Amino acid sequence: MTTVGVVCEAEDDFATAKTLIGRVLFEEANWIDGDTYQHVCVFAGLEPGRQFTTWTGLPRIRQSWPRRQAHGKFSGEPGAPMATAARTALLHFFAADPRPDAVLLMKDGDHEAPERLRGLEQARDRRSPMPVVLAVPVPEREAWCLSGFVAETEGEQESLQTVRRRIGFDPTASSHRLSSKNPTDKRDCKRALDELTASVRERAEKCIAEMQLEALRRRAQRTLEFSRRGASSPRTPSHRPRSFPAGRTVSTCLSGGLSRKSESEV
Description:
By secondary structure, this protein is of the alpha/beta class. The protein is 45% helix and 8% strand.
């Protein structure tokens, strides 16, 4: 049994990550399927009985254990956005009993994706006793659903064309170019997803659950390149960063034995 500690923004973010993790495990370890997944991989937050911890809930947990608070610089550099919060979360997971086998840190990129990615990397690179997987949807979780959207009906095809004409590009191929936090913006990510899926939650979930992983990987490459802009540091890490989703062997980062040894990168 592998336990994955999770910090994310909300229930929907956790559900999306759980689906993607399962799909990669099914691909990399062919003896795992939908029936065995729940017995092979379980998820845990920092509070008993919870499968994940939210970033907004982290301060409450931190108050209970004030000594598990990250301070100072990261390899001599000031912490980028999310670095201190992420490192604090990791310190709590490191001290947990039982300790998880891996940790997933998931945070929307919003308007500062490169900076937040850099902050999460700083937190992870400061000596971690277990694999730490980083997830930075650009600009937010709904962009992952858009990357997996394939029109199935004439109505959906018409909706896609309508959105394309309004924003000037295909939101399913370049979801990282969308915006967040302003539903009136013509490029708002949630607005685009709602239009394509008619605001049906099950249809949005299907985008993640059924699209071919290889297609998701191709679309994710553009997002990775975007997220790397401005996120570089004068200090080069000694190992390749682990990012998510659609890494070649994300399951290795999560379970250290369910599939072949390899680094993952999206």
